[in-house]
Amino acid sequence: MKKFFQLLAVACLVSTVTLAQEPKSAAKGVTYGEKITKKGAIPVTQLTQKMGANETLTTKISGKVLEVCTSKGCWIKLENGTNDPIRVTFKDYAFFMPKDLVGKTVALDGFSKKTVTPVAELKHFAEDAGKSKEEIAKITAPKNEIKYEAKGVLVL
């Protein structure tokens, strides 16, 4: 019986990874993840101010995509009016973004969280972004940042 449950767990994992494959193209009006609308979305440039002293905030945001994970679209970065773009990941790693999303505007529904990102994770993200070994080696300190986890993304 124990082997049956182990095999079942492996089958579920394989099917989840198979179903959550990288999308092919980012077309206007397409939703990834949960179906959402842009109604009530604040510009990502206002997110830090809207969060204030709160450690987390559930809200919709909208913004221009600056970068997509080159590995398989497992995260994106949104322009926020500073030199420090907002990194967006996707709830339960259940969906990915197409690589041609760069330069397009999106609306997202989810939550933001103030966090300290460790060096190892920053280096991993740099590898995903296709950065050179020299650029990755320059990452030596953790980073205070706001991360956003989206349950749904709408291409505008």
Number of strands: 7
Second-tier CATH architecture: Beta Barrel
Strand content: 25-35%
Please tell me how large the radius of gyration is: 17 Å
* Main beta-sheet annotation: 5 strands, mixed, barrel
Please work out how many helical segments DSSP would assign: 4
* Helix and strand sequence: HEEHEEEEHHE
Helix content: 10-25%
Strand order of the largest sheet: 3-4-5-7-6
Oligomer: single chain
Mean pLDDT: 87
CATH third-tier fold name: OB fold (Dihydrolipoamide Acetyltransferase, E2P)
Keywords: Signal
Pfam families: DUF4920
Protein name: DUF4920 domain-containing protein
Signal peptide: 1-20
What's the layout of helices and strands?
Layout lengths: L1 H18 L11 E3 L8 E2 L3 H5 L4 E13 L6 E4 L7 E5 L14 E13 L1 H10 L4 H5 L5 E13 L1
Parallel strand pairs: 2-3, 5-7
Antiparallel strand pairs: 1-7, 3-4, 3-6, 4-5, 6-7
Structure description:
The protein has helices spanning 2-19, 47-51, 119-128, 133-137; strands at 31-33, 42-43, 56-68, 75-78, 86-90, 105-117, 143-155. The chain is α+β, with helices and mostly antiparallel strands. It has a single domain (22-155), classed as OB fold (Dihydrolipoamide Acetyltransferase, E2P). It has a 5-stranded mixed β-barrel with strand order 3-4-5-7-6. It is globular. The model is unreliable at 2-20 (pLDDT under 50).
Keywords:
single chain, OB fold (Dihydrolipoamide Acetyltransferase, E2P), 4 helices, 34% strand, globular, disordered N terminus, signal, DUF4920 domain-containing protein, DUF4920
Gist of the model:
This protein is an alpha+beta fold. 24% of the residues lie in helices and 34% in strands.
